[in-house]
Write a structure and sequence with these properties.
Elements lengths: L2 E7 L5 E7 L5 E5 L4 H13 L4 E4 L4 H10 L9 E3 L2 E4 L1 H8 L1
Parallel strand pairs: 3-4
Antiparallel strand pairs: 1-2, 3-5, 5-6
Length: about 100
């Protein structure tokens, strides 16, 4: 991750240090309707300030087949890719974020 620090001073010598995360990964997630783990993962992306591309497998068979071809080792939803690396599902995402 890339970080940078902003330090501000006031006339009373109060110093504020702000750590800013400038890391913006490429995130892809395959979801389906009414999938709690899918919604939770997308919520985590939003908390991080990350943009993500969602493919909802409930919309079309073609998207579902695309996911199955891409995530041959995935056994649950949602399969998640960060920077073109398959990290796994929601629990794996939470480990990744620690």
């Amino acid at each position: 991750m890339h970080h940078f620090i902003v330090i501000t001073h006031t006339k009373n010598s109060v110093v504020s240090i702000i750590l800013i995360n400038s890391y913006m990964p490429k995130v892809i997630i395959y979801t389906r309707d009414l999938c709690g783990y899918c919604y939770a993962a997308m919520h985590e992306f939003e908390k991080q300030g990350w943009d993500y591309k969602e493919y909802n497998t409930s919309i079309s068979l073609e998207i579902k087949e695309q996911m199955q071809r891409k995530a041959t080792e995935a056994t649950t939803l949602p399969p998640i890719w960060i920077d073109d690396k398959h990290i796994g599902g929601y629990d794996d995402l939470m480990r990744f974020l620690k």
